[in-house]
Amino acid sequence: MFTKILIPVDGSELSSKAAAAGVNLAKELGARVVFLHAMVPYIAPYAADVAMVDDRTQMMFEQSIVDGSAKVLSDAKRLAERVGVSCETISEVDSRPEALIEKAVQAMACDLVVIATHRRGALGRLLMGSVTTSLLSILSVPVLIYRDGTMPGDVESSTASD
User: What's the chain look like in SS3?
Assistant: First the structure.
């Protein structure tokens, strides 16, 4: 059914849970996994067309995101290795993660995306957008959205015991 699953990871607990679910699905299907981490670009603060920081600040920022990305991807890779799922990792800089995900799906010939949703409210989606919502309209492959049952707004279901 699915042979190559793209799993975007951001280092959050929810993303790690989605990655674990995606890896378990891949194991069940005999699929391979591609982990993707999108790094944010450096944007220097400006005042009256003058940069407020020096080059050293930019270099320190860029090194910290590269180091952080390596850790996020290393943690994800360990998830796959633990259960014997073949995986690859991608780390790229882009201010629009959804565009990077779309590009990776095409370049890596992925046929499913497993992604966590942080379930921002209407105001959060308006101000910050929703990567997951954007993906639903731009991707040509299925998107499996991982939701944690402990997220705000979730209602616990209860069953009556006899």
Answer: CCCEEEEECCCCHHHHHHHHHHHHHHHHHCCEEEEEEEECCCCCCEECCEECCCHHHHHHHHHHHHHHHHHHHHHHHHHHHHHCCCEEEEEEECCCHHHHHHHHHHHCCCCEEEEECCCCCHHHHHHHCCHHHHHHHHCCCCEEEECCCCCCCCCCCCCCCC
